Amino acid sequence: GYVGRTKAVIKTLGDIQKRALCLITGGFRTTAASALEIDAQVPPIKHTLQRAIESAFYRIRSSPLYPLIIQPRDRIHCAIIVL
Predict the structure, then answer these.
(1) Distance of alpha carbon 31 from its chain centroid, rounded?
(2) I want to staple 33 with a disulfide (CB 3.0 to 4.6 A). Which of 18, 41, 67, 78 is the partner?
(3) Cα–Cα distance between 48 and 11 in angstroms, integer?
């Protein structure tokens, strides 16, 4: 389901981030990701994703089109025609 895919994507992104941090810091493959993040002063991928999600939410919420976005789907077509 959705939760399983979300966890898989976060794990994949975490693996990519760890490989990049190993290259940047010169760390070994066996070095813990948290140690590499501290050394490179990079937040964990979960925190980075959470910040991006919150930023997108507030950007959408403050949009002048937000009232159209939250309307039920059957009303959207009518609203677009009126515009």
Answers:
(1) 25
(2) 18
(3) 13
Q: Is the distance from CB of 71 to CB of 79 less than 8 angstroms?
A: yes
Going from the C-alpha of 50 to that of each of 21, 31, 32, 55, 65, the distances in angstroms are 20, 25, 22, 9, 23
At 11, the amino acid letter reads K
Tokens describing residue 4 = 């399983």
Q: How many CB atoms lie within 10 A of CB 41?
A: 6
Q: What are the backbone angles phi and psi of residue 30, rounded to the nearest 5°? A: -85, -5
pTM beyond 0.85: no
Name the band, by pLDDT with cuts 50, 70 and 90, for residue 69: confident
User: Which pair of structure tokens corresponds to residue 79?
Assistant: 């609203």
